[in-house]
Amino acid sequence: MEGTTAVGTQYVYDFSEGSADMRELLGGKGANVAEMTRILGPERVPAGFTITTEACVQYMRDGAEPEELDAQVDEALARLEERAGKRLGDPEDPLLVSVRSGARESMPGMLDTVLNLGLNNDSVQGLAGATGNERFAWDSYRRFAGSPRYCLKIARPCVFPPRWKRRWLIWSATTPEARCAWPSARS
What we know:
mainly alpha, 7 helices, two-stranded parallel ribbon, Dna Ligase, domain 1, disordered C terminus
């Protein structure tokens, strides 16, 4: 069921390339979002892409990512950026993505979701400017920074301005919605 390209194995599929029949290759979540895209159309479902379960199997077997994977992810990301009209990590108006794990079989609660990938010490300022909401931007960054470290390769630490650390601590200690919005011990 795995696809091939002119160069080798296809490890990355845009949501619009898959279907529910590809569950073994795309995992449950990947196949479901591909099916939703197929039924509703790519104009009604946010764009994205899935890295196949075969890429994971090869990584576990060989201890390294498939050789073609980086280039395929770069190409898929470029298509996503083009469609969204934004760039990942852009300091003016960043593209933000979520990263979900998915297996061939459902494993509820086993793996975490990474939210707001694309935020960094520079792009958070652009998000604040683009939305006109500094609190939203820094809260989004806090959620990204609170992602489990085993899910991420952090190139440099997240740096929050002291005024936002203080404001967040005061707000989270005094409002129940803050505690409900991020009930993790890691936050």
